[in-house]
Amino acid sequence: MSEALLEVDNVVRTFGGGSLLRRRRVRAVDGVSFRLEGGRPEIFTIVGESGSGKTTLARMILNMIRPSGGTIRFRGGDLAAIRGTAARLAFMRQVQPVFQNPFEAFNPLKRLDRYLIATAQRMADVSGEADILAAVERALQSVGLSLAEVRGRFPHELSGGQLQRVAIGRAVVRSARLYLFDEPLSNLDAQLRDEMRGEIKRLHQELGKTMIYVTHDQIEAMTMADRIVLLRDGMIEQAGAPLDLFERPATRYVAGFLGSPAMNFVDANLVGVGDTLALRLSNGAKLTLPQRRTANLRNRIDQTVVLGVRPEHIGRATQGERPGLVRYTAVIELLQPTGSRTYATFDLGDTRAVAELQAHEVSTINQQIELSIDMNRVVIIDPATNRVLS
Q1: CATH (residue range 264-381)
Q2: Of 247, 264, 269, 296, which is the most buried if we count CB atoms within 10 A?
Q3: pTM exceeds 0.85 for this model
């Protein structure tokens, strides 16, 4: 096994407590562990909703705050052992952050070109004016800018998107071993976020360096990551490749967090139907499960379970459908056209559910149509534990 670039081992961070403050002690990060290999550059995404502990974890990785317990090692060295200005600067040269607000990264009274040139002089492995200017130019070109575009300009003279590109270029010119992006696109509009996601992925491929990407946005997590850690209440809910979490969630929380629109959850009773099983909804409808999906469910017949089905796995029924698709008659209550798709709301049992249909497959509300539910792709959840059973 190659040397680890970063090891996070059972890390805990608590806040509050103490008799004077009389505050409840809160574990913002609670027993988080993962490892980034040194010889395998990747985009490692830490995702979670607000309050999940992701920013606290990021600040511990950057050595801005210390863990209350556990260990963080960078290239084999414990971050807790870093002492003194020289050691801190040496660490900062190797781990470069890009934060949510790019204006915080720059002196508002200093021209950007001078700032970048000074950064290259201090940090980059170059010497001589021509080499320094070339290093800055390459860094800016990697994010779609040029030195001419920022020459003589102050931070307030650029848009948020332009300045965030400069902030990323500033991190690139320092030629770090690890880059940490902490919600870098949150302040940008939707179209620019889409563009910047592509820019960061392309930059990762060009640099061949490991990047940690912190976000609350599950779409960013899915599109950016080679691996995902999903945090909930300071703990890892599930970790793995994006499609593994999406297609094989371990819990109801993971299933509901990933995907847009979110997964539909419906209470149902598990019943026997011939040699297989079915889910009986509150309105009496039965959704038959494929034989291969029943192995872990035989001991739960006549018990309540939760059916989870994604909107994209509910479509308009057609003739000659493949095995595992079950028809369901529905009355459409709400339509949300998006152009290429239409999201249709209907009652699945006694629960409001959403189906993702082709743009012109349904045109009016109160229309009764035949839907097709792909039972090969559903998840069955234990309502007592919220763990996925099948």
Answers
A1: 2.40.50.140
A2: 264
A3: yes
In the structure encoding, which two tokens stand for residue 54, read together?
């992701």
Task: At 337, list the tokens.
Answer: 């056209």
Q: How far does CA 55 lie from the centroid of its chain?
A: 13
Side-chain half-sphere CA neighbours of 302 within 13 A = 0
CB atoms within 10 A of CB 2: 8
pLDDT in tens, 321-370: 788 999 999 999 999 999 999 999 999 999 999 999 999 899 899 999 99
CATH 3.40.50.300 fits 4-251, yes or no: yes
Residue type, 10: N
- CA gap 311, 372 in Å, rounded: 11
Domain range summary for the chain, segments of one domain joined by +: 4-251, 264-381
For residue 177, the Cα-to-chain-centroid distance in whole angstroms is 22
- DSSP letter string, 51-90: TSSHHHHHHHHTTSS--SEEEEEETTEEGGG--SHHHHHH
Strand order in the sheet with 314-316: 314-316, 368-374, 325-331
Helix count and strand count (H, E) for the chain: 10, 21
